[in-house]
Amino acid sequence: MKKDYRELELNGSGELYKLEKFIEEICDFHNINNEYFGNILLASTEATNIMMSLGRDSGKGDLVVSFEKKTKGFTFKIRFESYSGQEETDFSIEREVRKLKLTKELYIIKALADEVTISIKGEMIILTFYVSSMNYEKSIERINKLKEYWVKKSAIVRK
Asked: Looking at the predicted structure, is the pLDDT value of residue 17 above 90?
């Protein structure tokens, strides 16, 4: 499988159009249908908005959105640029959720993404979308249509 990795840096909520273009290019490149594109776009935008609002309040700086295609599906990581994975900080998404009432946004994200992971310190949100099963579903649909066609054709020939 060919690896696909891309990264985008956002300097504020005024640059959300860059995220939309980023996701649209990825989905076009990988031939993702409109319904799934909508799920990816909305979940990623909501997660980015949450991280931006939390970062703005705590002075965390720029956000980096990275994309990686894996065998499992598409993975989007939304993190602060300075995040090293081992920073000691008092920043906690759970505390901020209670404070800012972000439960609706988190519910939307969890409903649209197949997997959602929030780092312990709240410095990163990882969204995973299983896109590999879409091809499987299309294949099953085509097989069923072919079976229907052959059943109808053989019924006509017998008459």
From this structure: yes
pTM (2 d.p.): 0.72
Q: Residue 46's Cα: distance from chain center in Å? A: 10
Q: In DSSP terms, which residues pair with 117 in a beta bridge?
A: 126
Which residues, including other chains, have CB under 8 Å from residue 141's CB and lie 6 or more apart?
none
Contacts with 114 (C-beta within 8 Å, 6 or more apart), sequence order: 73, 128, 129, 130
Residues 6 or more apart in contact with residue 10 via CB below 8 angstroms: 16, 18, 19, 48, 52, 62, 63, 64, 65
- In CATH, the number for domain 4-132 is 3.30.565.10
In what helix (H) or strand (E) does residue 3 lie, and over which residues does it extend?
A: none
Is residue 18 classed exposed, middle or buried when 0-12, 13-18 and 19+ CB atoms within 10 A define those classes? middle
Measured distance CA(87)–CA(112) in Å, rounded: 29
Chain segment 112-133, per-residue pLDDT in tens: 998 999 887 778 899 999 876 6
